[in-house]
Design the sequence.
């Protein structure tokens, strides 16, 4: 397992336990070790973690802004279907979660960050 994949897994675990800032930190480290086209997908994970941190602290506008940036990164036709190993992060789940959060924010709802899973 590469160091990047280890960091991706650590970030996934941090996200699952609601430690959004810690997930951001691990995924940012993984981003520095990534190359295109996966680099954009890892950056989208970083932005998802930041958005969830914003939501957990009541910053809806900040969350919406960062989610829109993450959504654009995942729109690339080269975006990988998964990242990491053991188990991999399902980027389709990430994309669906980002779209759902954006939709909920647009309707005035307050999304629950704990409902987000990346596989």
Sequence:
């Amino acid at each position: 397992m590469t160091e990047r994949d280890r960091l991706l897994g650590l970030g996934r675990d941090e996200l699952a336990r609601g430690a959004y800032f810690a997930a951001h930190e691990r995924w940012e480290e993984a981003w520095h070790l990534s190359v295109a086209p996966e680099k954009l997908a890892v950056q989208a994970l970083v932005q998802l973690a930041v958005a969830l941190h914003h939501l957990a602290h009541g910053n809806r506008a900040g969350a919406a802004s960062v989610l829109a940036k993450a959504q654009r990164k995942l729109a690339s036709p080269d975006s990988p279907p998964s990242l990491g190993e053991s188990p991999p992060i399902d980027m389709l789940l990430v994309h669906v979660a980002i779209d759902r959060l954006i939709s909920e924010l647009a309707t005035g709802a307050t999304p629950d960050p704990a409902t987000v899973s990346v596989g």
Notes: The chain has five helices and two strands. Strands lie at 82-83, 89-90. The chain has one domain: 3-115. The longest helix spans residues 38-56.
